Amino acid sequence: MWDAAGSALIALFDPFRMLMLFVGMFAGGIIGMLPGLGGIGALSILLPFALKLDPFSGLAMLLGATGIVYTSDTIAAILFGTPTSASSGPTAIEGFAMARRGEAGRALGGAFLASMIGGLVGAVVLTLSIPIAGPLVLALGSAELLMLAIVGLAYASGLVGNSPAKGILSASLGLFLGTVGVAPSAPELRYTFDFPYLLDGFALTIVALGLFGVAEVIVMLGQGGAIAQEKFKLSGWMEGVRDVGRNWKVISMGSFIGVIFGIIPAIGATASTWIAYGQATATAKDKSMVGKGDPRGMLAAEGANNATITTDLVPTLLFAVPGGPAAAVFLGALFVYGYFPGPRFVAQNLDLMFLIVWSSALSAIIGAAICFAASPWIAKLTRIDFGLVAAPLIAVILLGSFEAKKTVIDFTTLLGFGVLGWLMKRAQWPRAPFLVGFVLTDPIERNFWLAYQLHGWSWLKGPIVMGLIAVIVIHIAITFRRAWIVRKEIAAAAPVTPSPATTASSPIFGPGLLLSVAALVIFGLGIYLALDFAPDSRLVPLLAAIPGLLVTLTVLIQYLRGQLPALNWPPFAEARQIAFLAVAIFAIPFTGFFPVLGVYLVVLLWTCTSLRYWSLPYAALVTAAIYGLSRAFNIPLP
What we know:
Layout: H1 2-12, H2 15-32, H3 38-50, H4 55-80, H5 89-100, H6 104-127, H7 129-139, H8 142-156, H9 164-177, E1 181-182, E2 189-190, H10 204-223, H11 236-246, H12 248-263, H13 268-282, H14 295-311, H15 313-319, H16 325-337, H17 345-348, H18 350-378, H19 386-405, H20 409-426, H21 432-455, H22 463-493, H23 500-504, H24 511-530, H25 535-560, H26 572-591, H27 593-608, H28 615-632
Antiparallel strand pairs: 1-2
């Protein structure tokens, strides 16, 4: 075994193969910073070139890309609050808040180091997977996988905020919208309204970019100025290293969660990062900084992210079942090279197995080291006027959203989720539970259907299932108790009789009340339409919509009684930017993408920066760059 490990390492250190590893890392690092592409985009772009090489060189290139793509995606998440993939959402929440405090270097340094640790943990698990992973995967049936997904949803409902009702409402709404499209358990269309675009449901890329990317850009443009509200500290990156040392237990737990969800097929990094983030924030003693720049949740998510991506290869190599989308592309490359993963694959190709292990470990270390070394200089971007950054950023977001289904309706969907995310942010509704619920819809529905078909309701009696149910009940009880204590402390500190000024500044009708009414309509209509579905198709929509309706009524009553702050409407500057983006998106079908993009960027730069007469050449430069990206990645924009 160790002879094979040594020979594989020697083979990898061949100059040409090392060059291919670095080529993959370079391409993955660039692609990781672009919204909508991620690991599957990196592998898809590199695959034609990799297949022209020998198997060891080609696989080294592909593994180099996947080893760094989920490390470099933290750059846009931290500096601009824009997750380039759904799995970098937790980093966008906490890391961007840290960047605005002038701690971008600290956030980048800590995130890169946590990513490296997660990648190394994943590589170790990949090495030890031969005797351990097989029995573990086979021991988990559909019922256990279902309960693991529900545990993740329960943790997600408590993410960011002191109102569990808002968290449950947000998670229910995401779970419900995830059921749009073809039902996986029956040949039936749900909530498509005879609209072909909705046959495949909403694209995860667009949902993530709208909820976090567009929403954050609009808020920042409305506020004006630079990203960092405080002076940037060049030495902050060393504080990120100390954060990793202080929170090693949090990173270890996040990496462990990432390993588990990597070994389990088809769960993926998005679910593992959000669950790791939820676990870190739920178990933290001091929650005052959660959602406001707390490094603990970000470090746990980054550790889980890279651990999942690496251990996704465990079911891929042992059972020929891709652990995630990127692993599916990797599996296809193995088939083309003439390798057929399965129980005998490791024994018959031990040298190739160790080449995969070494490539994953080296790309995790070297990729994180490169990003880590550059973090102090990268972080200086936060001192630039945000309008200058927003122009290319919003253009790349539009490019990434179109990659989802390649239709102009993608832009409209992006705008819709962007407005939703903007209103949720202004109403202080947690957006993370929404995204987790949306991601977990498919595994929850698929595993519930399998468990019920095989065991009826007796699947609830399994020991692992009962243990996970106990974990959910205890977590929910602790969450509501904590929220009750917080409300009691706030009530004790508040004056008995509110002043007229306070009452005047807190109107009942605000973005929170508007969202509650909209959710009430969505859930009510969803329940009414679900009654006509087949029994197998209606179950999950009703499981999402009925609790969602009840919780929405509770939240609505709290708003009307003044128990939840209504908050003021967003400032006019933000609404104006939404209007500019909406006009541009609705004009694309009539004039084409690039003319509209050029005009929109000129308007954005003219209204949000001091460039004025330099707006036209800068907008032309950004438009030309986007045109080059679209040609390079073969994205035929309208």
